[in-house]
């Protein structure tokens, strides 16, 4: 299962996402910040193409504005439209999936917990005074999921017990490190999309890199040496099983993709 599956957001042409598509023109009239795209899918593509390593601050402001417009439409204190809630959730799925992977081990139904809390945080977002939609919603989702998981475990286990402390330590990396990971989720997506559009890597190669990253997170080796655990044996074994390739082939192709991207984009400034 996945966060997207739990939210019912796997098909943009069905359910609440389809409703969002039908309402898009009206939403754009209500809030011109959404007029950067003709529909939700185009907004997703626009975000990937526009907000990247070399994007000016104005592009980042436009992206924040579009998300903020949807968050306002979603809020009970704004448009109170659950189709807009679904639209925000759809755009934040990469960050929510990262959260779920980073918090595996805290609870058995982590995808369900993250999905439910993500929805609540979108509806509760204080759009009247906050601007950074993605960072605030994802960060609050993480905090509340950890709080809920700890409360559930406290029923069976003293929170001060060594077993709980070890479990929490495994699933709760350094706060600053995770915050930076959430902030960089969009940037990574945009860079991969750019690499495909410019012929640096193929869509298949991107899929392999993402599968390695997910396997590294699932096996808690993301901080190991070897490019954030991408070349760790658990990650390579997992992707080899998925693709039917040998471990050496998976590693060789991943290395070639990363080296190609480093050659193409290694000169770009690091975002501050």
Please outline what is shown here:
With 272 residues, this protein is mainly α. It folds into two domains: 3-171, no CATH class; 198-265, no CATH class.
Characteristic terms for this protein:
mainly alpha, 13 helices, single chain, 0% strand, 272 residues
Write up what this structure looks like.
With 272 residues, the chain is an all-alpha fold. It folds into two domains: 3-171, no CATH class; 198-265, no CATH class. Helix content is 69%, strand content 0%. The chain has helices at residues 3-7, 15-30, 40-50, 57-74, 82-91, 93-102, 110-124, 133-156, 162-171, 175-197, 203-218, 233-243, 247-265. Helix 6 packs across helix 10, helix 7 crosses helix 8 and helix 11 packs across helix 12. It is globular and about 55 Å long. 34% of the residues are buried. The model is unreliable at 154-184 and 222-226 (pLDDT under 50).
């Amino acid at each position: 299962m996945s966060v997207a599956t739990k939210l019912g957001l796997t098909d943009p042409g069905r359910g609440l996402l389809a409703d969002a598509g039908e309402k898009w023109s009206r939403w754009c009239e209500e809030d011109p910040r959404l007029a950067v795209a003709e529909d939700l899918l185009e907004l997703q593509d626009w975000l990937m193409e526009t907000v990247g390593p070399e994007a000016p601050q104005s592009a980042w402001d436009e992206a924040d504005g579009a998300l903020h417009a949807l968050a306002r439409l979603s809020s009970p204190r704004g448009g109170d439209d659950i189709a807009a809630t679904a639209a925000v959730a759809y755009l934040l799925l990469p960050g929510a999936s990262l959260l779920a992977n980073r918090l595996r081990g805290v609870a058995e139904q982590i995808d369900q917990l993250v999905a439910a809390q993500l929805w609540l945080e979108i509806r509760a977002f204080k759009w009247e005074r906050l601007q950074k939609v993605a960072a605030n919603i994802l960060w609050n989702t993480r905090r509340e999921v950890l709080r809920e998981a700890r409360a559930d475990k406290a029923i069976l286990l003293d929170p001060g017990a060594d077993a709980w402390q070890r479990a929490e330590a495994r699933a709760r990396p350094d706060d600053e490190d995770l915050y930076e990971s959430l902030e960089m989720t969009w940037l990574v997506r945009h860079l991969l999309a750019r690499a495909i559009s410019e012929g640096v890597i193929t869509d298949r190669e991107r899929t392999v890199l993402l599968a390695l990253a997910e396997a590294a997170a699932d096996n808690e080796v993301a901080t190991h040496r070897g490019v954030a655990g991408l070349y760790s044996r658990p990650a390579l074994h997992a992707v080899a099983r998925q693709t039917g390739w040998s471990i050496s082939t998976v590693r060789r192709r991943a290395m070639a993709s990363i080296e190609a991207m480093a050659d193409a984009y290694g000169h770009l400034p690091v975002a501050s």
